[in-house]
Amino acid sequence: MYAVEISIQKIVGNAFEGLIEDYIENRVGELDNFLDEDLSKNLKENLLLLLAEKQFKAAGIGNNKKLLKDKSIRSDLIYWLNRDRNNIHENSFFDHMDAFVIYLNKTCYTGITGYEFHYAYYDEGSSYKRHLDQFNDNSDRAFSMIMYLNENWKSEDGGELCIYHRDSSQIISPLNGKCVFFKSSELEHEVLLNHKPRMSITGWLKTN
Ligand code: OGA
Ligand code: MN
Asked: Which ligand is nearest to the CA of 184?
């Protein structure tokens, strides 16, 4: 292997390590620049294209069997990602996630066997009320991951992710390239009202 490839793997491995260490210490892993600037930008452009083509759907609450659509609980629009679209940027996102899953399984014996990811678009004035990411009748979702695609996000734009711990809450701004990682069965959280369109990729690492 070439030296440059080895050093790239080291950098990526170190980034994964930082996210996982933060998760172990604080129950929420947070990492800036988990997606590099170019990838974030390209994914955001794809998202906006799909949105303009009216390919996004109102997100539901619950799973397939009893999918409920209630805008007062959740008002984002989503589009499920899929390798079969053969989109070069989305597939390099999936490559990145594959590398993360391999790293996580190897270092933490997590036994992740799959994942699902969607784009999310919160038009201004949207929110997602306090909830848990696991459905009552299905525990496949082991970890939640959210990656933000918002350049120049300012504190007055709102749209923070608020995570509820036992005695405190944690506020996270949806900054470009940032990744948030936590156990899906454990932490309730909420997306606060945003005053500017807010974009992300959200997904779950799964076991079965
Ligand atoms: C979700 C969610 C958080 C965020 O989609 O389930 O909680 O910050 N998203 O977008
Ligand atoms: Mn959630």
From this structure: 2
